[in-house]
Amino acid sequence: MASSARPRGDCWPTPHQEDLLRAALLDGDPARAAWFAYRPTFDLDHLDNGSRRLLPLLYRNLLALGVDDSLLGRLRGVHRYHWLRNQLQLQYLGTLLRSLDGAGVPVLVLKGAALALLNYAEVALRPMDDVDVLVPSSAVPTVLRALRELGWHTSWRSVEQLVPVKHSVPFERADGASLDLHWHVLLECLHTEDDEPFWSGAVPLNINGVLTRTPNPTDHLLHTCVHGVLYNPVPPLRWVADAFVLLQTASIDWERLVRHAAERRLVLVLHNALHYLVSVLDAPVPSEVLRALAAQPSSLVERVEYAGKVHRSVVWAPFVRSWCAHQRLTQGRSPYWQMADYPRYVQQFWGLAHWWQVPSFALAMCLRRVQQTSCISVPS
């Protein structure tokens, strides 16, 4: 096992959760040792959501390891629950894909649904709270009509207003199904050319008999790492499992990965995500790839953006992320123009009707985040 050293920041799983990750993902004695270290404090009834979503993987790995434990019966029930839930999600997704195909809208399926079908041994091993689809930004009005006809709705006042300043928006159905509609892959990359390699390098995917596409494994790994490394009061674990499974089951074009990260100024977050995977799970990442990423220069915006993602800046994180996204979007404009344009941008970013609503909305958001954080306890 590699050194337990990790990149700096508050976004990484706790040591206790790392034992769960090893027990769920590794083979042989390292997995058994991790399970026996984790088991004494394992409380299924009070497990954080990030850890809970690893339980199907844990169940299958304990069976493969030949571990005999009284908890296996309950874990089998969790596995069955997520199998059924994922089947329902895929059914909703298939219906949407048929509708969009009929309207002539190209689609890429992102994240969980594609990974569950192509990279995990079973669909149930990758729990999905929602499904993610990417469409061209020019097709958003057509997609919104299709979503409304299929019973999907969003709490955002005007999705069209968000298209120039955000990358996605969530939708729900009355029956509880959830969807993230993307017109860009990442918040950090809001230019059309940033998404072009995801489209041109896409691979086929079959969703319940509907032929569609998804990013290739290399591009999926980039998306997984950049999207996943983000501070949360409950450290996220799903991205670690997704990235590790990709590394174990797919062929990665490392040259393409480094090049695309450098072109999008994402080398800092990608380097530290891959370094974390190596240090905690001994993931198969070539050392020369880490050296190539470490040798890439990082801009001030990239460093500030990364700090806002990984540190416990609970109150200020939304402002840091929106400021950095605005800086990226308006690159090349004068600092004075950027400063004058920022209130308008934030108004659109937060979906507000008027710019003068920004201060009160920002204050309310800060207070809400402080209150939410103070109510959450994370195991060490």
Describe the structure.
By secondary structure, this protein is α+β, with helices and mostly antiparallel strands. The protein is built from 18 helices and six strands. Strands 1-2-4-3 form a four-stranded mixed sheet, with helices on one face. A two-stranded antiparallel sheet has the order 5-6. Helix 4 packs across helix 5, helix 10 crosses helix 12 and helix 16 crosses helix 17. The two termini are about 20 Å apart.
Give a quick precis of the structure.
The model is unreliable at 376-380 (pLDDT under 50). The chain is α+β, with helices and mostly antiparallel strands and 380 residues long.
Mean pLDDT: 89
User: Roughly how many Å is the radius of gyration?
Assistant: 21 Å
**Series of H and E elements:** HHHHHEHEHHEEHEEHHHHHHHHH
The general outline is globular
Topology, number of strands: 6
Quick tags:
4-stranded mixed sheet; 380 residues; two-stranded antiparallel ribbon; alpha+beta; 18 helices; 7% strand
Summarize the SSE layout with pairings.
Blueprint: H1 15-25, H2 28-38, H3 49-52, H4 55-65, H5 72-102, E1 108-110, H6 112-118, E2 131-134, H7 140-149, H8 159-162, E3 168-172, E4 178-182, H9 192-200, E5 203-207, E6 210-214, H10 217-228, H11 238-249, H12 254-263, H13 267-281, H14 287-295, H15 300-310, H16 317-329, H17 335-349, H18 358-374
Parallel strand pairs: 2-4
Antiparallel strand pairs: 1-2, 3-4, 5-6
Helix pairs in contact: 1-2, 1-4, 4-5, 10-11, 10-12, 15-16, 16-17
